[in-house]
Amino acid sequence: MILVTGGAGFIGSNFVLDWLGAGLEPVLNLDKLTYAGNLENLQSLKGNENHTFVRGDIGDVELVSALLLKNKIRAVVNFAAESHVDRSIRGPGDFIQTNVMGTFNLLECCRKYWETLSPKSKEDFRFLHVSTDEVFGSLGRAEPAFTEVHRYEPNSPYSASKAASDHLVRAWLHTYGLPVLTTNCSNNYGPYHFPEKLIPLVIHNALKGKPLPIYGDGQQIRDWLYVSDHCAAIRRVLDRGQIGETYNIGGCNEKANLEVVDTICNLLDAHKPKAGGKSYKEQITFVTDRPGHDRRYAMDASKIERELGWRPTETFESGMAKTVQWYLNNTQWTENVASGAYLEWVEQQYVGNA
């Protein structure tokens, strides 16, 4: 059995669905169910004996230790994190607590558990830490993309907390021998994305007739990665990655935020046209830029392709078409999140124990 932390969030839930859909080993899913954790993402797994959900915090040492031991966990995939830059600017404390202290506690629990294993089980065990391109800071327009050896230069409380967690993971390998792997991924998009992030926010606001807010001049560039491609990359790293190595995961799709919003509007114009033939682009509104907003991220993912044979299968165009269609087909999911009803659903439906 593998332990997936943060497995009710956007990327984590997609990973769990993808993993079990591939017929792989059972998943123990640990999530605190903060605002971005949503059990509705996992509704299709209800009654699936290969999925066990436990509501809990990676900072709860007793709980994590018991779960590792009781379930004979052979790998941990750590998605658990606070991840929204704007929220980190308004309240950095939660980011330090979850991303730094939480990762520390998880590493310590895993180290103590790993040390009790038989030689063969110790050799097979893996701790895979999922991180972000934002730890590397901001690139100029003409600079080469981030590689795995790029210097860390985080510019927000969020990226600084993730950088700290990456360093802890590295230290637990070199100090204690814990068999760790780290992945740094670019901006993900796809189903079950919490609608405070750019793509789902724009889709939701467009359909509601609300402004489509774009920071500054909208020319901030990100490398966009369809979430199922990210899940496939993590599976590949967990299966074939070399202990102690870091792997960049990118979509090879650098796009300015304004271009992303234009693409969404074009897709909505085609599939959900407004009355009167007007374009959703008329709802675009430029707002004051975020403090310290990084200008460009770009990932050089040649190492994972060269060494592990992974590359993304979705283009930006194909991935965006799938994403917009998913949100058009699942408006109730978005409504539940936007209204907060999903939180009530969690309290009514949550059943789980260690």
SSE topology sketch:
Blueprint: E1 2-5, H1 10-21, E2 27-31, E3 51-55, H2 61-70, E4 75-78, H3 85-90, H4 92-114, H5 119-124, E5 126-132, H6 157-176, E6 180-185, E7 187-189, H7 198-208, E8 212-215, E9 221-226, H8 227-240, E10 246-249, E11 254-256, H9 257-271, E12 284-287, H10 302-308, H11 316-329, H12 331-339, H13 341-349
Parallel strand pairs: 1-2, 1-4, 2-3, 4-5, 5-6, 6-10, 7-9, 8-12
Antiparallel strand pairs: 9-11
Helix pairs in contact: 1-8, 2-4, 4-6, 7-9, 9-11
Describe the structure.
The protein has 354 residues and is an alpha/beta fold. It has a domain at 2-189 and 227-251 and 293-313 and 340-349: 3-Layer(aba) Sandwich (Rossmann fold). Helices cover 44% and strands 16% of the residues. It has helices at 10-21, 61-70, 85-90, 92-114, 119-124, 157-176, 198-208, 227-240, 257-271, 302-308, 316-329, 331-339, 341-349; strands at residues 2-5, 27-31, 51-55, 75-78, 126-132, 180-185, 187-189, 212-215, 221-226, 246-249, 254-256, 284-287. A seven-stranded parallel sheet has the order 3-2-1-4-5-6-10, sandwiched between helices. Strands 7-9-11 form a three-stranded mixed sheet. Strands 8-12 form a two-stranded parallel sheet. Helix 1 (10-21) links the parallel strand 1 and strand 2 (27-31). The longest helix has 23 residues, at 92-114. It is globular and about 70 Å long. The two termini are 14 Å apart. Mean pLDDT is 93; it is low at 349-354.
Largest sheet: 7 strands, parallel
Stretches with pLDDT under 50, minimum 5 residues: 349-354
Strand-and-helix sequence, N→C?
EHEEHEHHHEHEEHEEHEEHEHHHH
Provide a count of the helices: 13
Q: Per CATH, what is the topology of one domain?
A: Rossmann fold
Main structural class: alpha/beta
Strand order of the largest sheet: 3-2-1-4-5-6-10
Task: Name the CATH architecture of one domain.
Answer: 3-Layer(aba) Sandwich
Beta-strand portion reads 15-25%
The portion of residues assigned to helices is: 40-55%
At the fourth level of CATH, the homologous superfamily of one domain is NAD(P)-binding Rossmann-like Domain
Shape: globular
CATH class of one domain: Alpha Beta
Rg of Cα set: 20 Å
Distance between the ends: 14 Å
Regarding quaternary structure, what we see is: single chain
How many strands in all? 12
Mean pLDDT: 93
